[in-house]
Amino acid sequence: MKKIISLILCFAIVFSMTSCNENNTKESSKTNSGDTKPVEIPNPFTECDTISDAEKLTGFTFTVPESIENYGNPKIRVINNEIIEIMFINENDDKITFRKAQTNDDISGDYNNYTDEKSITVGDKTVTLKGNDGKIMTSVWKYDNFSYSVSTVGISEEEMKNFIDICK
């Protein structure tokens, strides 16, 4: 009698394992057969050849330095037709990134925690500077219904003030 019960339990276990495996096989064959496609997140960036092209996409103007010593030509792009981003990159792949958008949000994209943070006035703009060890990594401000940011690998406060003063 014990042998028969043991045999029945073995068959029940094998049957349940087989039925689970069949469902997985059917699901995986659907995925592999091309019935479903992976979901891709759309690229939010639109590359632009000129600042004028970027301004046409967003509907506002943006003034930044034409060039930065020891940095290459700017890479210009628009994010979701709302933010103009202009990035200067040097030979070490260090970046200085300028952003502008018609919003009240912080558009810097920099979510790091810094040891130093303070507010300063540049012209008639109140700017928040963030950085470490006396080097400024990010500045953010709002002016005339726009948000601005400048992000770097770390520059002096004077250099950052010069960039802020140019941005319009």
Task: Provide an overview of this structure.
This protein has three helices and eight strands; from the N terminus they run αβαβββββββα. It is α+β, with helices and mostly antiparallel strands and 168 residues long. Strands 1-2-3-4-8-7-6-5 form an eight-stranded antiparallel beta sheet, covered by helices on one side. The chain starts with a helix and ends with a helix.
List the keywords.
eight-stranded antiparallel beta sheet, 8 strands, alpha+beta, 3 helices, 168 residues
What fraction of residues sit in β-strands? Answer: 25-35%
Number of separate helices:
3
Estimate the global geometry from the Cα principal axes. globular
Structural class by helix and strand composition: alpha+beta
Compose a concise summary of this entry:
This protein has 168 residues and is an alpha+beta fold. The protein has helices at 2-33, 51-58, 157-166, and strands at residues 45-48, 75-79, 83-89, 95-101, 116-122, 125-132, 135-143, 146-155.
Task: Give a topology summary.
Blueprint: H1 2-33, E1 45-48, H2 51-58, E2 75-79, E3 83-89, E4 95-101, E5 116-122, E6 125-132, E7 135-143, E8 146-155, H3 157-166
